[in-house]
Specification:
It is a single chain. This protein is an alpha/beta fold. The protein has a single domain (10-212), classed as P-loop containing nucleotide triphosphate hydrolases (Rossmann fold). Helices cover 43% and strands 12% of the residues. It has helices at residues 21-34, 50-59, 67-90, 101-109, 117-121, 140-144, 157-175, 198-209; strands spanning 10-15, 39-43, 94-98, 132-137, 188-193. It has a five-stranded parallel beta sheet with strand order 2-3-1-4-5, sandwiched between helices. The longest helix has 24 residues, at 67-90. The termini are far apart. The relative contact order is 0.22. The chain binds thymidine-5'-phosphate and magnesium ion. Magnesium ion binds at residues 17, 152. It comes from Stereum hirsutum (strain FP-91666). Belongs to the thymidylate kinase family. It is an enzyme of class 2 (transferase). This is Thymidylate kinase.
Length: 227
């Protein structure tokens, strides 16, 4: 049995639709579980809760909502789970999370309604911050070739191109030197070329994840987003 770390690591996987996040999250989960490393999986949107059901209906174009309203629902859907996330991490269990607040900003800020970036960020301020963000980078053109593309709202090349730009901006801001936050308390943002084989992407992900899931655990406290 692996010993329990002081607290678990919060690992978020981000990327465009069809960048392979769900596949890679499953692979990573298996890797951790096969090593008896305690881990829990979350996915946002969590379509099961009442708020999640509204989001699901919107994404499948079964209902329409004002862009601000859907943005706030996505954020509320994270806040619903925030206390659970903290408890899980504090109990020494790692979390692998398919999408988080970065998706929230990237997608809303990419809409034709041009909602300001700062407005998009506000509702997620002070959510538990991830320790590691694995950003699976793929060209919208390549993503389009993958199965199932276009089934849901936002799965259009033009939109995804803008989303990729916003992700780039967030990456730069997260990694920027001279930010007022302590560098050691800043989440680590890693960009991974997701245009390669599932195996190659999985291997690279593991190289980045391994240092975060050592038995010694993570000693720094859980961070807060954008604080
Ligand atoms: P999924 O394909 O990972 O289930 O995500 C559904 C869509 O919702 C995807 O196009 C990204 C988008 N999204 C937002 O617009 N805001 C958010 O906060 C999240 C988590 C996802
Ligand atoms: Mg999708």
């Amino acid at each position: 049995m692996a010993t329990k770390p002081s607290r678990g690591a919060f690992i978020v996987i981000e990327g465009l639709d069809r960048s392979g996040k769900s596949t890679q999250a499953a692979t990573l989960l298996e890797r951790l579980q096969s090593r008896n490393i305690p881990v829990k999986f979350h996915k946002f949107p969590d379509r099961v809760t009442p708020i999640g059901q509204m989001i699901d209906s919107y994404l499948r174009s079964k209902s329409d909502l004002d862009d601000h309203v859907i943005h706030l629902l996505f954020s509320a859907n994270r806040w619903e789970l925030a206390a659970t996330v903290e408890q899980t991490l504090n109990s020494g269990t790692h979390i692998v999370c398919d999408r988080y607040a970065f998706s929230g900003i990237a997608f809303t800020a990419s809409k034709p309604s041009q909602i300001p970036f700062e407005w998009c960020r506000t509702p997620d301020i002070s959510l538990p911050a991830p320790d590691l963000i694995l950003y699976l980078d793929i060209s919208p053109n390549k993503a389009k070739e993958r199965g199932g593309y276009g089934e849901e709202r936002y799965e259009q090349e033009e939109m995804q191109t803008r989303v990729r730009e916003v992700y780039r901006r967030m990456r730069e801001e997260t990694m920027a030197v001279g930010s007022n936050r302590e560098s050691e308390n800043r989440p680590q943002w890693v960009e991974i070329d997701a245009g390669r084989s599932v195996e190659d992407v999985g291997k690279e992900i593991w190289i980045h994840v391994e240092p975060f899931v050592q038995p010694s655990g993570i000693s720094k406290p859980i961070g807060r987003l954008w604080m």
